[in-house]
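Protein data:
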Amino acid sequence: MGTPFRVMLRMQITPGLEEQFERTWQEVGDSVTSHPANLGQWLSRSLDEPGVYYIVSDWADEQRFREFEASERHVEHRRKLHPFRETGSMTTMQVVAHLPRSATAATHAEWERVA
């Protein structure tokens, strides 16, 4: 398998609806992660921009992501999350390299000594 195809969504959530959005996202997430080409999905809340969330999902390849994107299941998933959203954008990208974790030190101080 080649490198993953990555999708990153940026969503501005209506003030006051953040907790409900997070709960709903977790409740409906299986409609994405159960797709055979999905490699995982993450929800992150911005620490710098109130109400901004990033959703990152990795896919086996772009073609299968695009098939999912056009599916009825995806439309239903979006319908459930749309009421929380004020604005949003999508960025797609091809992962070109990955450096897996290689830490052998247990603490920062130990890591400093190893260098």
The longest strand covers residues 85-94. DSSP finds five helices and four strands in the chain.
